[in-house]
Design a protein that fits this description.
CATH topology of the largest domain: Rossmann fold
Number of helices: 13
Structural class: alpha/beta
CATH architecture of the largest domain: 3-Layer(aba) Sandwich
CATH class of the largest domain: Alpha Beta
CATH superfamily of the largest domain: Methylthiotransferase, N-terminal domain
Distance between the termini: 46 Å
Largest sheet: 6 strands, parallel
Shape: globular
Radius of gyration: 22 Å
Strand content: 15-25%
Number of strands: 19
Strand order of the largest sheet: 2-1-3-4-5-6
Length: about 450
């Protein structure tokens, strides 16, 4: 029995794809290994959202080839889907895009026969799309639930519609059935994911059904909670807020990537907001849900940005006082509308300024995030255990305010716990981005 290893890069949606690829591999007679050194087949499931992600993907493939010369290497995912037909990559044994994962067993067979297939599939027949994953790559007790693929927003900088295609929502009933399976398997934290959760159902039903979906999911039997990742600010479903207030299973955690705050830059990005509009949304969320945790993302260096527009962003961050914020610099992606807004020379010059802006903004946000953590001290929450700190009666865990892999952690003093356990904890102090707690 040959062994297969998968290196999953990029976002949570890519992780779900990796889990499906592994499920197909196991059904094809392969055995999963968590060590690439043991693998006969190494799959690098790539990201191609921005230049840094593409570089990481290629570097990962090259390092795998150098370290494991006898393994068959398959380059899959977004980089393969976007560039597969043009790539000449002799270091890999196959190139496989991500629009129809059901073709993966065929790719494996071709590599076994020492063929070097290049498959950039079109969208699959919906009946061939699967939602039963025998492998979950999340930490114990956690799983991602993907409710749609692609995006219709077509922001001028974004390559996602080029790579993943237009919005394709999964049928309501299929999502419910998958959630039931996850709950039955003992998953406690289900992170509901999409490029824009609020757009769910528009293509299938002619309107957003996201709030209805969350209503149905939160009504299922079992011991679980729901986390929402991500919601586009321009189409935020306001009827979601009273539902979150009513249903304690829906964590009051909102990841709302605004990208900028200056209306001139936002219009050029293809977005409709402004500092005042987005602050109003934040205020409405906090008015309805005082315990809400809000994360956002800011892009710096988009064409047209200058010191004046950057000052607008700083005012926005100062006034919004987000619990968490991520940032990245604009990547000039071919085939996007923004690509032609300036040439490479202008872009390289602007990129240096953007890096300086990013450093200043993150220093500012770090102070805010640390201050926001103080409000949890003295309160009791449920926490999911992620891992034990070696040699100590201490564990890393997360409360509702901490999404997996992107936010701070809670360090919990306890005994005899294991990853995936859910325990009540009291927060005794904040430590920078992290919290210190004792199990009750």
């Amino acid at each position: 029995m040959e062994k297969i290893y998968i290196e999953s890069l990029g976002c949570a949606k890519n992780q779900v794809d990796s889990e499906i690829l592994l499920t197909y591999a196991l059904e094809s007679g392969y055995e999963r290994t968590e060590s690439p050194a043991e693998a006969d087949v190494i799959v690098v499931n790539t990201c191609a959202f921005i230049e840094d992600a593409k570089k990481e993907s290629i570097d990962t493939v090259l390092s795998m080839r150098e370290a494991y010369p006898k393994a068959r290497i398959i380059l899959s995912g977004c980089l393969a889907q976007r560039y597969g037909k043009e790539m000449e990559f002799e270091e890999v044994d196959a190139i496989f895009g991500n629009h129809d994962l059901s073709l993966f067993p065929e790719i494996l067979k071709e590599t076994e026969a020492e063929h070097h297939p290049v498959e950039v599939p079109t969208y699959p027949d919906p009946d061939r799309e699967r939602d039963d994953r025998s492998i979950l790559l999340s930490r114990p007790g956690c799983a991602y639930l993907k409710i749609s693929e692609g995006c219709n927003h077509c922001c001028s900088y974004c390559a996602i519609p080029i790579i993943r295609g237009p919005l394709r929502s999964r049928p309501f009933e299929k999502i419910i059935e998958e959630a039931k399976r996850l709950i039955k398997e003992g998953v406690y934290e289900i992170s509901v994911i999409a490029q824009d959760l609020g757009a769910y159902g528009i293509d299938l039903y002619g309107r957003s059904r996201f709030t209805e979906l969350m209503d149905a999911l939160s009504s299922l039997d079992g011991d679980f909670v729901l986390r929402m990742l991500y919601i586009h600010p321009d189409t935020f479903p306001m009827d979601l807020l009273p539902l979150v207030k009513e249903r304690k299973r829906i964590l009051p955690y909102f990841d709302i990537p605004v990208q900028h705050a200056d209306p001139k830059i936002l219009r050029a990005m293809g977005r409709t907001g402004s500092r005042q509009i987005y602050l109003s949304l934040v205020d409405k969320i906090r008015e309805c849900l005082p315990d809400a945790v809000i994360r956002t993302t800011i892009m710096l260096g988009f064409p047209g940005e200058d010191e004046e527009t950057f000052e607008e962003v700083k005012r926005f961050i100062s006034e919004g006082r987000f619990d968490w914020m991520g940032s990245f610099t604009y990547s000039r992606e071919e085939d996007t509308p923004a690509y032609k807004m300036r040439n490479k020379r202008e872009h390289d010059k602007a990129h240096k300024a953007a890096q300086s802006y990013q450093k200043e903004l993150m220093e500012m946000q770090n102070v805010i995030s640390e201050e926001r953590m103080h409000r949890f001290v003295g309160n009791t929450y449920k926490a999911i255990i992620e891992e034990r700190i070696e040699g100590e009666d201490l564990y890393f865990g997360r409360i509702y305010a901490q999404a997996p892999d992107v936010d701070g952690l809670t360090v919990i003093s306890a005994k005899d716990l294991k990853p995936g356990d859910v325990v009540a904890v009291k927060i005794i102090k904040s430590m920078g981005f992290d919290l210190d707690a004792v199990a009750l």
